[in-house]
Amino acid sequence: MAEETGEPGHSGRLLSALRPVRAGNGFEEALERILQVVRLGLVPDGGRLPAERELAGLLGISRVTLREVLSVLQDQGLIEARRGRHGGTFVLPRGPGPDAGDELRRRVADVDIEDVLLFREVLESGAAGLCAARGLDDEGADRLRTALAATHEAPLPDYRRIDTLFHLTLAELSGSPSLAARYASVRARVNDLLDCIPLLVRNLEHSQHQHTVLVAAVLDGDEEGARAVMREHCAGTAALLRGFLA
Predict the structure, then answer these.
(1) How far apart are the two ends of the chain, measured CA to CA in Å?
(2) What residues make up the domain containing 140?
(3) Is residue 164 part of a domain?
(4) How far apart are CA 179 and CA 162, in angstroms?
C-alpha cells in the first residue's frame, strides 16, 4: 500500500479512487484512475504507489495492461520505477514552472468538458444508430469503408485529423444535415481538448478495433450494437480527457 502521509482517511480515499474499471476501456479508465490519484495528491510527491499485483487487483485489470498504463505515466514524468529492496513505483514531484501543455489548457479553460463529452456521445451514438437503422446504399458503404481504411493507414502525426474525417463521414451518412453540422461543431471542441493530451499508441490501437467493430455493426444493420460500440468508444476518450485535464 502507499506510504503513509499522516492524513486521516488517506488510505480509504486511495482505495476509493482505485476502484475496478468497467469492461471495454480498461487501459483508458485505469489511466484515468491513477492520474486522479496522482493529481489529487492521494499519494504524495515521493510516495509509493501500491505494488503492481495489488494495483492490478484493485483496478481489475491484467498486469500487462497495468504496465502499459505505468509506462505512459513514466513517459509523462509523473512517476518513476525504482528497483531493489526498497524499489517500487514512486510519484515524482511536480515542478513549479509551466509545462508544455499550459497554453493549450488556457485555450480550453472556459470549456465545460463534461457537457462537450456528453453532447458528443449523444450525437455520435445517434449517428451510428441512424446509419445502421436506415441502412447505407453502396456508395455510402464504400465511403464508410474507405474512411475506416484511411484511419488504419494514417501516420501517427496525421491520425487525429483522419480520425475526425472518419467520424464526420459517419455523421454525414446518418441522413440528418443538422446532426452532421452539430457534430462538426462539437468535434472541433473535442479536438481542442485532445490537443492538450498526449497521443497514446495503446489507445489508438484500441480505438481502431472499436472503429472496425462499429463499421461491421453499421453495415450489418445492427442499430443497438452500433450505438453500444460508439458509446463505449466515446467513454474511452472521455476517460483519457478527464484523467489528464480534470
Answers:
(1) 25
(2) 102-245
(3) yes
(4) 20
Sorting pLDDT into bands at 50, 70 and 90, what band is 191?
Answer: very high
Report how far residue 184's alpha carbon sits from residue 85's, in angstroms, rounded to the nearest whole number: 54
Asked whether residue 116 falls in the same domain as residue 194, the answer is yes
The domain boundary, picked from 25, 58, 91, lies at: 91
For residue 234, pLDDT beyond 80: yes
Cell numbers describing residue 234: 466515446
pLDDT confidence of residue 12: 62
- 121 and 196 fall within a common domain: yes
Distance CA 8, CA 18 (A): 18
Residue 8 pLDDT greater than 60, yes or no: no
Model pTM?
A: 0.83
Element (H, E) at 29: helix 26-39
Q: Whose CA is closest to 182, among 234, 232, 119? A: 119
DSSP of 96-143: SS--TTHHHHHHTTTS-HHHHHHHHHHHHHHHHHHHHHH---HHHHHH
Q: Can you give the pLDDT at residue 11?
A: 59
Kind plus residue range of the DSSP H or E element containing 80: strand 79-82
C-alpha cell at 151: 484511419
Kindly report the length of the chain: 246
Cell of 29: 479508465
